[in-house]
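Bumping with the actual sequence this time:
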Amino acid sequence: MDAATDPKTALAALRDFCARGLGPELAGRFVDLARPGFALTEAAPGETGHSRFGGRAMLEPGTPWPMCEGVPLSLFAVLDTDALAPWLDGVLPAGTGLLNFFYLDVESERHDPGAWEPFSRYGPTDPRLSRVVAARSAYAVAAEAPARSTVFGTVEWAVTPGFAFPDVWDPAWDTLDLGPDAGDTARAMPDVFVLDRLPGWKERPGALDSEDIAFGRPEFPTGSAPLVPSGDDPNDYHHLLQLGPYAEWLIGGDGGWMHWSIPTDALRAGDFGRAVPTPDYW
């Protein structure tokens, strides 16, 4: 992780960048939509850390392996939140440690055939197909996956902090006050109104350039929004992890990005049992 820039300095630079095109007041409200996130890219040889795709789960002794109707879930990723903590102040409890992301594998060539029955009955966004399990770093040990659970090859991640803004279709745009001078067209397409006034947006301070992203906000290339449980407001959820395709695993047949999200109040309380899968297929 790049420790040269602390989050307060990075956020101030982002506000200054936005103020040049939007003015200080609108820039301040717009930047309030940003959430700290982390680009996850393949680590160079010799880089170490606990954040990775695949490999073995890191669990505290005695923690049961998560199951769905007798079929073991598969470990997809591990995040070391202790390493991310300086950028996540107030977002999750101190000492959360490692987060293990499990899901029912029905996509890889090595998936268990029995996984299709619960998957087809519940659908890809059902919480019973997924689990996020925290483990305190000082107590976590590598856990052997049970039979029928897919073990993916390990891809160690380098972690780069920054700030994520809402995707085009994210309902978070509905919460942005554009000010009294904005017309009907601007209010109908606030993302276009704002980003048209920010030339060089891709080169902004703190930009995240990766398909794999921890925390921040999700991206949904299909033009949807987070598919949270029916009746819930997506604005009450916080993004946990976005995974693009890997050599051993391609979500949704043609493609897609996998996501996990959690109610913000549950995240702040460390209640990861309320995390839900919010995948995006195309």
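The tokens above came from a reply further down the thread. Residues 109 and 248 are 7 Å apart (CA to CA).
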